[in-house]
Amino acid sequence: MTSENKQRESIRIRTQRATRCLFFLVLLFGISSLYAQKQNFVNFNVENGLAQSQTTVFAQNRNNELLIGTFGGLSVFDGSFFVNYNKSKGLPNNVITALATDRNKNTWIGTNDGIAFFNGQQFHTYYPSSKAGENVIRKIIVDRYNNVWTIVNDKLYRFSGSRFVRDTTIGTTLSITLDKSEKAWVVNPGKGIFVWNGQGWKKEIDLQHEPDLVIADMSFGAYSGTLYCNTSRGPLAVDKGQLRYPEFLKGLPANGFFNTMYEDRRGIIWLSLSDGGAWVYSNSKWIHYNYDNGLTDDNVTHFFEDAEGNIWIGTNGSGIFSYTGSLFTYYDRASGLASPSVMSMAQYKDGSIYLASSNAGLYRLGNNSNVEPVPIPAYASGVNSLQVDTFGRLWIGTQRAGLWYLDGRSTRPFVARNKVIPRNITYLYQYEGTLWISSVNGLYHLAGDSILYDPLPKAREIYATLMIGTDSMLLGTRKGVYLYRTDTRKLLPQPLLDNTTTLCLAADNRYVYIGTDDRGVVLWNRGTHQLSNIDQKRGLSCDYVYSLLRDKDGSIWVGTGCGIDKISFTDKGMKIRSFGKSDGLLGVENNANASFEDREGYLWFGTTRGLFRFNPYTSAAPEHAPRVVLQGVKLFSKDIPEQKYADSTLPFSDLPLHPVFPPSQNHLTFSFKGVFLSSPEKVRYRYQLMGADKTFTETNQNTVVYPNLPPGSYVFKVWASDAAGNWHSNVVSYPFIINAPYYTTWYFRLGIAFLLIGIFLAVVYYRNHQKELRRRWEDRLREEEQARVRQKTAEDFHDEIGNKLTRINLLATIATGKLPASSPEVKGILGQIQANVTSLYNGSKDIIWSLQPQSDYLEEIILRIRQNAEEMLQDSDIQFDFEQDTLSDTHIKLPIDYSRNMIMIFKEAITNSLKHGEATRIALKVSRQGELLVFELLDNGKGFDTSVTGKGNGLGNMNNRAKRIGGELSCDSVPGRGTLLRLLLKIY
Questions:
Q1: How many structural domains does the chain have?
Q2: What is the CATH number of the domain that holds 717?
Q3: How far is residue 873's CA from residue 105's CA, in Å, rounded to a whole number?
Q4: Are 393 and 406 in contact (CB under 8 A)?
Q5: Based on the domain organization, do 479 and 380 belong to the same domain?
Q6: In angstroms, how far is CA 526 from the centroid of its own chain?
Q7: What span, in angstroms and rounded, lies between the C-alpha atoms of 273 and 952?
Q8: Residue 211: how many CB atoms within 10 A of its CB?
Q9: For position 573, what pLDDT does the model report?
Q10: Shared-domain flag, residues 849 and 861
C-alpha cells in the first residue's frame, strides 16, 4: 500500500470514528422554553408525489423548480406537482447523493454509481473512476467559470467537456463547496483549504498544524459569508484564517450527533443533531422544532434556501418540509386543544387569550403560549362566542346553557333576576357598557342584573351586530341586514341588504362591510348609501365570508371558506393579499366571527383546523417573480407528433420550436405554469395570443384553448403574478404559424386573378375573333357581291358605251368619206369627233378595267400604269423606262378605289410631261421602303418652277387623289433639270 493510500485509509477511519462519536456541548443558562404553538412547516411526502421519503440533497434549476434527491430517485417539484425520475427512466442508480445545475440549464446528478447528465430530454451517464464499484459520488458543484467538479473516492475530478478528468494538484480531497461569489473551495487534510481562481488552486487556510483534523463537509454562510466546517471535533468556523467554535454554539441546549449546519440569507442558523428535528438560532436564542411544534422527530439530512427565501428541510423518513417564515403560527390538537375548531377568542385583563370551542369548552392561552383547559360543565361546553366588557369581565355565550362568565379562574352561569335565559347564543357584542346578545331566537341585551329581550319579529336568527351610531345598530341575519333603532326599540321595515345570509359586520368612517354567504363582502357607503361588493372576481379567495376584522392600520381582514384575505386601501386604490397553505395557514375554512386583534397588535383567527396567529411585525420576504414555463401545446387535445411540424424542439422540452401547422390543424391548447414555490396557489396569469386577442385575459387557470384559429402568424404570450398580485416582465412567448389553405394564399389568388383575366381575355379574343371572322365573311360576301356588280357593270359599260362609241366613230368615218372635197371645215369637225371618241374610248377602258375585281391587286395596278405609259408614248420620240426594285410580293389586294386613283394620278403626270415637259426620256420606278410603297416618275424635260402655280388643275387633282387613298404626293422640279413625281403609299 502506497503512502498516499495509507494516508487516505487513515483519514477514512478517523472520519468514521468522528461520525460515531457524541458531539458534546456545555449546557448554559438561558435555555429557551419550548413553544406549544406550531410554526408553518408544510410537509410533502410520497402521498403528495415525492419519489421517496428519505431525502439526501436539494438544488434549484433555472425554472425555479426544486430538485430533491432521495433514496428512490430524483424528484422535480414546481410548487404543486412532483415529476420523478429513477433508474427505469435513465438514472444509473436510484440513490441520489449530489445535485448541481450549470449555466446551460443542464442538471448534474450524483448517484451511488456514477453521474447522470440531464439536458431536460435525456440522460447521459459518466463514470469518473475507471474502477468498477468506485463511482459513489460524494458531491457535485458548478463554479462561476462553469466548471463541473466532483469528489469520488476522496479524489477530485473536473469535467473536460466529454469526460471527467482527475485533478492531481490537490491530492486527497474530502469536501468541496462554493462561496458567495461561486468560487470553488476544497479541503485537503493535513495541507489546507484551497480556492480555485480560474487558473489554479490557491491555499487560503493552512491545516499543516492540524494533521489529525478531518473536515467531512464545508459550507459558506449565505448571510455572513463565514466558512463552516463539519469536522471530527464538531462544527468549526473560519475566523481570521483560524478554525474556531462559533459563538452561537455555546448556548445550544442539547447534545448529540452533529449532522449538518446551514446559515440562510437572513443570518438564521439551522442545525441538525441526532435528537431529531431542527435547532434554529435566531434573535440570540435557540428553538428546537420537532413534531410538537410542526416539524418532525426524524433526523434532518439537509437544509436548503431557494431563490424566494423558503427554507427546505430534508428528512430521513418524513419527506421534505418547507418553511416560509413566521407570519402565522398555530395551535391544534398537538398544542392541547381537544377540538381544533375554535369559534371565538378574547383577551382577558391579565393579557391571556381565551379560546372557545363549539364542543370542547373553554381554553386559556397563557403568556407562555401553553394551552390550558378552563373547567366548564359538559352541558355548557358548546361555546360560540366570547366578549370582554368595559369592566374586564369575560362573558361566555353557549349553545345550550345560556350566558356564562369567568369568575377568577372559574366559570359560572349568569342567573338573570328576571329569569330570562337566551338559548343558542351566536354572538356577543359590547358597546358603551351594554352587552348585546345575539341568538337564533332573536336579540337580547344585559341591563343591570337582568336580561331583556328585544322583540323583533322580522329579525330572527341573528349572527352579527354592529353599532353605527349612538342609537343605530345593524343586525346580520339569515335573511339579510336590518337597521335597529335602540332608542325607540324599533326595526326599520326595509332591510339594508336583502335575501342573503350575513354572518359578520365591520365598519370604518366611510364604509360598512357586510360579510355574506354568496356575494363576498358588500360595501355600504355611509355617505351615499350606495352598495358595492368585493367578491371572488375582484380577488377574494371565495364569496363565502365568515368573519371581518378591521385592524389598527385600517385594513380589513376577511375570513372566508377558502382562506384569509387582507384588503388594504391606498392612494392607488384597493389591494387584496390572500393567505393560504403556503403562508402556514393550514386550516383554510374560517369560523363565524372568529377573529380579533389583541393589545399587542397580533391578529387571531379561529378555523376548523385550529387557531392561527398572524404576526404583523414579521417582515415579509421580498416578492419574487414566478418563472413562467410553457408546459404543453396540444393539437386537438393530443400531443403534437415529434418533428412533424417543426425541425427541432424547445430546450428542456418536447414542444416543437416555431411550428408551422397546416390549415386544418388549428385547434390548440396551451398549458403553462408560473413556478412559485412560496405560494403556488396564489399565482394568477395573463395571457394573450398576438394575432387573435386584442388584449390580455387575466385568470387563475393555467390552461387555455383556442379553437378554429384562422390562418396567420401568432405569438402566444403568458405572464404570472406573485403572491401579492404584482405583475412582472416574466413573459414567455411561443410563436407559431398556421398556413393558409392554398385557395386563400396570395399566390393562389394572384394565379386565379391571372386565370380569370386570361379567361376574360380569351373570351374577348374569341368574341372579337368571331366578330372578325364574321366581318371577314361579310366583307368577303360584300366583296364578292361587289365583284359581281363591278364585273357586270364593267361588262354592261363595255357593251353599251363601247359599242356606242365605236358606232359614232364608224359613222363619223363614213360621213367623212361621203363629204365632198369642198367641205374641209366639216371634215375637220368630223375628225375632231373621231379624235374625241377615240380618246373617250381609251379613257373608258381604264374605267372598265377599274371596275373589274382583279384591278384591286397591286401587281395589276403596276402593270396597268406601265401599259398606259407605253400606249401614251408609243407615237412620240420619248423613251420610256420601267424599274421595279425590292418588291418580292406584289400580289397584295388594295382597297377598291385605290386602283382608279393611282391610274389617274400617273396618267395625268405622263400627259403633263408629254405636253409640256419636252422630255426625251420618262422613267417609272416602283420600290419599297419599309412599310411604304414608293412610285417615282422622272423625266428629263425642261422642268418648271414649283412655286409658280399654273392655271390648270392637273397637279391639284393629283394631290386630291393621293389624299383619298392615304398617300403622300410630292413634286420636285427645277427649270432645266426635269421633274420628279413621288407617291408614297402605306400598304404593308
A1: 5
A2: 2.60.40.10
A3: 114
A4: yes
A5: yes
A6: 44
A7: 145
A8: 11
A9: 83
A10: no
Residue 82 has pLDDT above 70, yes or no: yes
Q: How far is it, in rounded angstroms, from Cα 86 to Cα 149?
A: 23
Output the pTM of the full model.
0.69
Q: 3-class SS at 706?
A: strand
- Domain with residue 951: its CATH number is 3.30.565.10
Q: Which comes out higher in pLDDT, residue 752 or 39?
A: 752
- Kindly list the distances between the CA atom of residue 646 and the CA atoms of 122, 654, 655, 659, in Å, as whole numbers in the listed order: 19, 11, 9, 5
State yes or no: pLDDT of 73 exceeds 90: yes
490-538 pLDDT, tens digit each: 999 889 999 999 999 999 999 999 999 999 999 999 999 999 999 998 8
Q: How far apart are CA 902 and CA 924, in angstroms?
A: 13
Q: Do 818 and 900 belong together in one domain?
A: no
Strand 660-661 versus strand 732-738 pairing type? parallel
Q: Is residue 651 scored above 60 in pLDDT?
A: yes
Apex CA 43: angle with CA 40 and CA 44, to 5°?
Answer: 150
- Alpha-carbon distance values, 18 to 12, 233, 257, 311 (Å): 10, 7, 9, 28
Q: Residue 675 is inside which H or E element, if any? A: strand 668-675
Q: Which residues contact 153 (CB under 8 A, 6 or more apart)?
A: 129, 134, 136
Instruction: Looking at the structure, tell me whether residues 931 and 905 fall in a common domain.
Output: yes
Beta bridge partners of residue 282, listed in sequence order: 285
853, 880, 904 - which closes a domain: 853
**Residue 655: how many other CB atoms lie within 10 Å:** 18
Q: Which domain holds residue 913?
A: 857-988
Contact 578, 563 (CB under 8 A): yes
Are 825 and 779 members of one domain?
A: yes
In a domain, 274, yes or no: no
In a domain, 382, yes or no: yes
Distance, in Å, from the CA atom of 243 to the CA atom of 263, rounded to the nearest integer, reads 17
In a domain, 325, yes or no: no
- Looking at residue 673, what is its pLDDT? 94
Q: What is the pLDDT of residues 348-397, one digit of tens each?
A: 988 899 999 988 899 999 877 788 999 999 999 999 999 999 889 999 99
The model's pLDDT over 529-545, given as tens digits with 9 standing for 90+, comes to 999 999 998 889 899 99
How many CB atoms are closer than 10 A to CB 314? Answer: 25
More reliable by pLDDT, 335 or 840? 335
pLDDT of residue 3: 44
Cα torsion 890, 895, 900, 904: sign: negative
> Both 861 and 715 in a single domain?
no
Q: Is residue 818 part of a domain?
A: yes
Cβ atoms of 354 and 406 within 8 Å: the answer is yes
Q: Assign residue 384 the CATH number of its domain.
A: 2.130.10.10
Q: pLDDT-derived band of residue 943, with 50, 70 and 90 as boundaries? A: confident
Going by the DSSP 8-state scheme, the letter that residue 893 receives in this structure is B
Do 814 and 942 belong to one domain?
no
| 376 and 524 assigned to the same domain | yes
Output DSSP code: residue 256. B
Domain boundary among 614, 644, 679: 614
- φ and ψ of 738, to 5 deg: -110, 115
